[in-house]
Amino acid sequence: FVSAQAQNSAKIEKKLEKKFQKGKIEKVEKKANKLKKKYPQLPISYYFLSKVEIIKYGRFAEVPNKKQWNYLSKASVYTKKLGSEYAFWKDSIMLTYNQYINSWDDDKYESNHLKKVVKTYSKHTGDTLLYYYKYYGGKQVNISKISHKIPVTDSLRTALIKFASDLVGIPYKYAGETPEIGFDCSGFVKYVYKSIDIELPHNAHMQSQLEGEIISLEDAQPGDLIFFGSKNGRKWSTQHAGIVYEYKEDEPKVIHCVSRGVSIDGNNTSWDSYWKEKILFVKRLPELK
Hints:
- This protein has about 290 residues and is α+β, with helices and mostly antiparallel strands.
- Helix content is about 45%, strand content about 15%.
- The protein has helices spanning about 1-20, 25-40, 45-60, 65-80, 85-100, 110-125, 130-135, 155-165, 185-195, 205-210, 270-275, and strands at about 175-180, 180-185, 215, 225-230, 235-250, 250-260, 260-265, 280-285.
- Strands 3-8-4-5-6-7 form a six-stranded antiparallel sheet, with helices on both faces.
- The longest helix has 20 residues, at about 1-20.
- It is globular and about 55 Å long.
- The N and C termini lie far apart (about 55 Å).
- Residues about 140-155 have low confidence and may be disordered.
């Protein structure tokens, strides 16, 4: 019975994906809603309803407005019904939140709206961004005063990757930065680098602004920081942070904490369909030169 149900689900997903790729959004939404009513526990319907809302969101990509937020909010609600097999889509929603926030000019638009969005984003991703401190206070790390302690060891990279590897499987946790409670993306990077006595801020964008050498992915070595997000000219919006795990035979692997927890990605479905296109740059801190 379970096998037959799985096969039927796969067929339904294939049909809906085919219609979605052809741009038949209304038909996909109608079918997904029917499925949701008939089989409320079936994740496929929520996945496609979320995708439809993101398509609607994208129609306002040039000019940020509150209609965009309505679509993004609905898409986010649907993802709560999805399991680990849709982790790549949950990660996509997280980054879309960040893109939306950074598309607003806070001097021009209503601060109350952004304040609400930033709080919702922080609950979903655990990454507070610089905006969070502006609206809700709290201690913000001064990048220029971050101290780097150089430990006495022959191989910082080996020690760092070994330490990070032992954390695979630790679950994602909003604002988490210890294995006892879980990690968010920047909390994981902060914890791993602390193991070799390098202090980092608990914020992906602030980590990307640290002093260091920006290098290409092809020149990356295990232990280098890797950042994901979006670019606008010379400016960038960092939405996710990770650590280069290895780079062999033109195939990169990254260890990071996403919605399914600490994992190693590279040369797999989620990497090729999502993360690869979101790479901003790799950064090498002075201690790892």
